[in-house]
# Entry
Amino acid sequence: MSDPDCIFCKIIAGELPSQIIDEDERTIAFMDISPATRGHALVIPRAHSRDLLEIGPEDLAATIAGAQRIARRMSERLGTDGVNLLNSCGRAAWQTVFHFRIHVIPRYAEDPLRLPWTPAEGDMDEIAAVAAELR
# Structure
């Protein structure tokens, strides 16, 4: 299953160029063309799923396993000091291509990448109220 208008589906089909670094029967991993750091890669399911809310459990498990393989390879071959995994689900969360993916972003001690928010202590009553809504 694929979406003919999806650039990631076109990469999977070989219609668009990419630097593929890993693949298996369910996933493909390739270099991000707008890297946050040296070695930034994407791992996607071969079957088109719009986002985290749509992807099936088998493809989700395969994609996270692929991300782990790539993260280990980055650690071994690029000398990373850490790795961030990132998924954006929906426009408000910065999703720009509507095909599920996990960004595997190698981190280096002196790289300039920073969190998109400054962690600060929250309102405990509000946290408890939201927790109650989610239970």
The radius of gyration is 17 Å. The longest strand covers residues 102-107. DSSP finds three helices and five strands in the chain.
